[in-house]
Amino acid sequence: MTKLLIVEDESVIRSALKRLLERNDYDVSEAGSVQEAETSFDLQSFDLIISDLRLPGAAGTTLIKKAGSVPVLIMTSYASLKSAVDSMRMGAVDYIAKPFDHGDMINAVERILKDNAEAKAKQKKTTQDIGQTTTRMEGFIGDCEAMQNLCDDIAKMAPTTSTVLILGETGTGKEMVARSLHEQSHRATQPMISVNCAAIPETLIESELFGYDKGAFTGASANRVGLIEAADGGTLFLDEIGELPMEAQARLLRFIQEGEIRRIGAVQSRKVDVRLICATHRNLERLSREGKFRQDLFYRINVLRVMLPPLRERGKDILHLAEHMLQHYCEKLGKPIKSLSPKAIQAITTYQWPGNVRELEHAIERSVVLADGDEIDNDLLGIDLELVNVSRLRSSSASSGSSNKASIRSIAQDPPEDLSLEDYFQRFVLEHQDTMSETELAQKLGVSRKCLWERRQRFGIPRAKASNDKRVSAQKD
Fold it and tell me: What is the rounded distance in angstroms from the CA atom of residue 54 to the CA atom of residue 251?
């Protein structure tokens, strides 16, 4: 049977939760404190630990490190943004507020156990992979499914000579993927030549790529080797290939088809052995239909395709990346190691990051340079939290339409699988608006009263006037 441990100092809650889990065929043990749990049980023998946050002696989060690889579900009646963020940062697998619905608890336990089992199986499979695991993961930070698939694709594509087309928004790391493909290929000891097609003037692009012979044009006083020929035996990376002029596209097509080039002004062609990798943030298929990119060239370079996910779709990877970059720049700039404040974490996980990883990296570097204390706040990152929240609420309102109220009810009932601070706002307001004033709610959420009011309007959450007015009156008295 699956073994669970409940660590809860209130015996009534502990007993009730134990009965609930045992009715669902779990083998349940219990303890009233962290110390009792440590002395009475081998923590790593359990499949899941469910612990209260506030416990006598030591907080429930101290079990996270002590339990090793065993997932820890934190439950607490002190629901607040800071405690949620802190618990997740320390490694809690999930966070649930008391009082909780029995169905919610069972669903959370089942989901965590399933995810943990799948993660262990995947990890075991990865460690048994064909000796390429460490190499192919080097330089890539993230555990989301998209990044894992990306690493798998790189490992499969790298040993081949096939042309690769890398697609992704600006700043997603297309050149890093190209370099990884080269370094894991049989050409790793040969040169990799990178060309930014958007950075070379249209009048010079052909001479840069294909080279020229002496006397080919005014100013050609000597023979010059082109970048394609310089990459002979290795890899040619054409970044922003969508910006390549039509004339250069025609010559590039011949190079791909025939495996040979002819310098400008030359009579004879030269054979070259080059592995081609292309990248762009533009939709080449649409451009080819519109006549702005050669269709035959598109078909030639669209052999193996790699799609890089935007940063906003990488879930918890965003926070992992930010913390890794923070440590990197602290060490690089000779600064004491700093941490991200709860507001900074909220900003990082809710901002859309149109510039993706590059924008995040620059924001972290800037904050490390400007920070005076040991903590990085959202202001140093250059992110206006209120503007970000209002923007997200507007887009959410526009996309969901009349289903807002139904989604609010769903959020209030079902704990999120990932730490979505936008969803957490809705749950927090619904659960506490009867016991807190608007000022208290705004303070707890780290926003202004105006922002709180705007969010209520966007999500259609009615203000509990009677309860709030009574509480405010009581405070004034």
Answer: 69
